[in-house]
Specification:
Length: about 400
């Protein structure tokens, strides 16, 4: 089975409301808080089989290649390639991406290429993707609904909207939640307290500070939040700021032990679990977390780390060290969500609820059969490969003019 042609198209889909995380540097534009932008990759074989990939949630600051330029790059490296040698084809694309490529965009692009190739491999062997990843060990992936920060609205209005959001998700069967925090501590506490009033004492709640706090500040604020009712805190310290990890990961990689020790001190001082991202940072960072017993759980976003295979390796590393794992999200469209779900049902160590929010956050999808939550979980579709196909009417509806 050989690749005969490649197509890349660009779409942008609105979110239900303007969403953001604590963002000290104001890196997201107002428009980017309300929409998600994607490049959809299609690999066509000589016998008409299509492999789907997705470059997920692209921001302007990443300065992505146009759809046409990305298609030309992939055409040079993949056209004529044998799907049986998919790993070598993936490496060819990795080597061909410019050195100046934005670091997170590199991971997102390679993820899109890898899942398109794996989609073809699954179709070649008539097997769902989870079989290629080790076999299915659970029916579905439990989802942790993310309550983002909202646009510039008064606190009373924000809390009212937040209350309606959480109440609706609890009624729909969600049993785990995450709140973005770190920008306004009194507002954060108010949202946590309101969550407990709505959801009761038993539902799981973690917060994500996106690396907003200095170490002692983190210990103090996490202590207050724990008393208000949280179960875990993700990315508490500025030493591992998400903004730096996304745009300049080498700054963190170069001082991995220092960052891990900061996390370890916070973990030792608070009564709840500490969680940290690992996929968009180097392997040495994961090793430092293990070495210093710095966290209880690792957050793995395969699209940021370059694909499912590296994501699986990071999950196995955590499992070997006795740390649990969850799948984070960059707000993936249908092909990306499908890939995450296949990984989640195949990886034994994904035992903490995962942030796969796109099916409930985006107003639409480009796949013929969008994902829907079932009792707070997502399950893979039947069929070989990813198990999804594009809806051409939706592709046309959400197409960008430069796609």
């Amino acid at each position: 089975m050989k690749i005969a042609d490649i197509r890349v198209r660009e779409v942008s889909v609105p979110r239900l409301y303007d969403t953001y995380s604590a963002d000290v540097q104001k890196l997201q534009s107002a428009d980017e808080r309300g929409r998600s932008r994607y490049q959809i990759i299609e690999l066509f074989t000589e016998d008409g089989i299509v492999g789907l990939g997705e470059v997920s949630d692209i921001y302007d600051r990443m300065q992505p290649l146009s759809a046409a330029d990305l298609r030309n790059l992939l055409q040079r490296e993949l056209a004529g390639g044998d799907v049986a040698q998919w790993a070598l084809l993936y490496q060819r694309v990795a080597a061909a991406l410019p050195d100046t490529y934005h670091p997170e965009l590199r991971g997102l692009t390679l993820f899109g290429v890898e899942i398109a190739l794996l989609d073809l491999v699954g179709k070649r062997f008539d097997a769902p993707l989870y079989e290629l990843l080790g076999g299915r060990c659970r029916d579905g992936v439990e989802v942790c609904w993310v309550g983002f920060l909202r646009g510039e609205i008064p606190m009373v209005e924000e809390l009212a909207a937040f209350e309606a959001e959480i109440a609706a998700k609890v009624a729909q069967g969600m049993r785990a939640f995450k709140l973005k925090v770190g920008e306004d501590h009194p507002r954060d506490l108010a949202r946590i307290e309101l969550f407990r009033q709505i959801a009761g004492p038993d539902l799981y709640l973690r917060v994500d500070a996106s690396g907003s706090w200095q170490e002692l500040e983190a210990i103090d604020k996490i202590g207050q939040m724990a008393r208000a009712g949280i179960n875990a805190c993700e990315t508490p310290v500025v030493a591992i700021s998400r903004q730096v990890a996304n745009d300049n990961p080498e700054q963190i990689n170069a001082r991995a032990d220092e960052a891990a020790l900061s996390l370890a001190r916070v973990r030792a001082a608070v009564p709840i679990d500490i969680i940290e991202h690992v996929a968009d940072l180097g392997d040495a960072f994961s090793a430092a977390l293990v070495r210093h017993r710095a966290v209880d759980v690792v957050n793995v976003i395969p699209s940021q780390g370059g694909g499912l295979m590296r994501g699986l390796r990071l999950i196995h590393t955590a499992q070997t060290a006795g740390m649990a794992a969850l799948l984070g999200s960059t707000v993936e469209m249908g092909p990306g969500t499908a890939a995450f779900v296949h990984l989640g049902v195949a990886a034994q160590n994904v035992t903490v609820s995962s942030d796969l929010v796109a099916p409930g956050l985006l107003v639409d999808d480009v796949c013929a059969h969008p994902f829907a939550y079932q009792d707070g979980a997502l399950r893979p579709f039947a069929g070989p490969g990813l198990g999804v196909a594009l809806d051409e009417d939706k592709m046309a509806k959400w197409a960008l003019s430069n796609g």
